[in-house]
Amino acid sequence: MQKTGLRMLKARSSESIFSIPMSETIFKKGQSLWIEASLKAVEEWADHLLQALGEVKVLVQPRPALVMMHARDSVEQEVFCVGEILVTECQIACRGQRFWGRVVGDQPLRALCLAIFAAAKSLEPEAISSLEYNFSQESHRIEEYKDREKRALGTTRVQFETMTPT
After folding, report:
1. Would you list the domain boundaries of the chain?
2. How far apart, in Å, are the Cα atoms of 3 and each of 48, 95, 116?
3. Which residues of 93-108 are buried (b: 16+ CB within 10 A; e: fewer)?
4. Mean pLDDT within 134-141
5. How much is the pLDDT for 25?
6. pLDDT in tens, 7-55
7. How many CB atoms lie within 10 A of CB 38?
8. What is the mean pLDDT of residues 131-155?
9. Which residue has the higher pLDDT, 146 or 28?
10. Euclidean distance between CA atoms 50 and 97, whole angstroms
11. What is the sign, positive or negative, of the torsion defined by CA atoms of 13, 25, 97, 120?
């Protein structure tokens, strides 16, 4: 049986591995949904986008890396280093352009899917538009999950403002 779509791309990912400067082609709004969505949904979306993109080559297969995380102090508004965090990153080429995907944690498949999303956002935006209904369904599922989680945590939350000193 012949492999198609994302499975074929994963199988070919070890063909060519070398370091190339990363592209800056990820759009934050769509990217956050791809990070929070279920892996099954992300795989289905990436398969759909691969059909629209055509030939995609993995330049740097998904691999772990450490990056320095910066944050801003809420009082003095000064930037400081929180520490290193584990990410998984990869790079693909499509139609002569390079795209990358990076995600927090050890998630090689999600990093590859993010790179595919970046390529589609730049080269085939209409393919992404055709997934809008799927995006809204998954976004709704995520919001319901967050609401349930918030309600569960709210029952155990301590209200320090109303506590009296002992």
Report:
1. 23-145
2. 15, 22, 18
3. bbeeebbbbbbeeebb
4. 89
5. 30
6. 656 655 443 333 333 333 334 455 678 888 999 999 999 999 999 999 9
7. 12
8. 87
9. 146
10. 15
11. positive
Report H helices in the chain. 5-12, 28-36, 39-53, 108-123, 125-129, 132-154
The CA distances from residue 149 to 137, 152, 154, in Å, are 19, 5, 8
User: Each residue of 40-78: b (16+ CB within 10 Å) or e?
Assistant: ebbbbbbbbbbeebeebebbbbbeeeeeeeeeeeeeeee
Polymer length of the chain: 166
Q: Look at residues 154, 144, 36, 23 and name the one whose alpha carbon lies nearest to residue 91.
A: 23
Q: Which residues of 119-129 are buried (b: 16+ CB within 10 A; e: fewer)?
A: bbbbbbeebbe
Question: Count of CB atoms within 10 A of residue 141's CB?
Answer: 14
* pLDDT per residue as tens digits for the range 61-87: 999 999 998 888 888 889 989 899 999
- Which residues neighbour 73 within 8 Å (Cβ) at sequence distance 6 or greater? 79, 80
pTM (global) more than 0.85:
no
Is residue 107 within 8 Å of 96, Cβ to Cβ? no
- Number of neighbours of residue 2 by Cβ within 10 angstroms: 5
